[in-house]
Amino acid sequence: MTWDQYYIQKNKKKIFCNQWIYSKSALNIIITHTPIVSTTDFQSVYEPLTNYPVNIFAFDFSGTGCSQSDGHLTRSSILSDLDAVIAYIEEEYSERIFLYGTTGIGGIFAQYYVQARNNVKGFAQFACLSYGEMKGMGYPRFLVKLLCPLLQAIPNFKFTMKPPEYTGYHAELDEAMYVKMVRGRTDFWKTDSKFLLALLEMAVHKDSMLQKELRVPTLVFKTMHDRYFSPAHFDNYYNHLTCSKKMIEIDDVHNSYSIHCESFCKEVYDWFRSID
Question: Rounded to an integer, what distance in angstroms lies between the CA atom of residue 39 and that of residue 67?
């Protein structure tokens, strides 16, 4: 078996998918990631899942990576992209569909979809977001509410959005991941303003799907030394979940999803297998 690059076509979209097929009837795992590069650049993060009897579908959101679309990434395009990926899997493989959101914002985007649709069998996430709660990420709510209409009104533009400084536990390991990703990419930290808008609207917009109940069995990874999220941020989110749930504490840094990718993938597979 090898990785196969495939385009899922829906209307005017061509969604780039990096897929690994074990069998027609195998458990299917969709991977979402932070859309700053293509999914193939993050392949090492989810590749340990190939050690298990599963099909893997890691894709680029439309308007990002290798996917093709007329527009920019938005909250609605995130929903329609995942709708298209799920429809493709149901048609070609089976309805045993699970979702793993990884590499930070990929977990939040996946969570947004699950709360909107509640149509997958199981969910696992690295990073989370509670509606109206921004303290865990370091952004005051009033500033976010001011930014959203401004970013909505003006054309998309590129701006530099680097990670916050971190000097704590395993800082050198955390930084090494970014050094590796930036190598050879002069514009790595250049981010679309519409990408930021989608994330901020999830947190504060009056019609955000994060206000809906999450009913899918959910696994939450809590990183104890995360430069983006405080431990309380994870606890607040997890404590308000009313679905079947499990939390795994990772005594390491934000980029531990890459540093310890084998352990993460094993926990994800075990969780999905337990509810399949």
Answer: 10
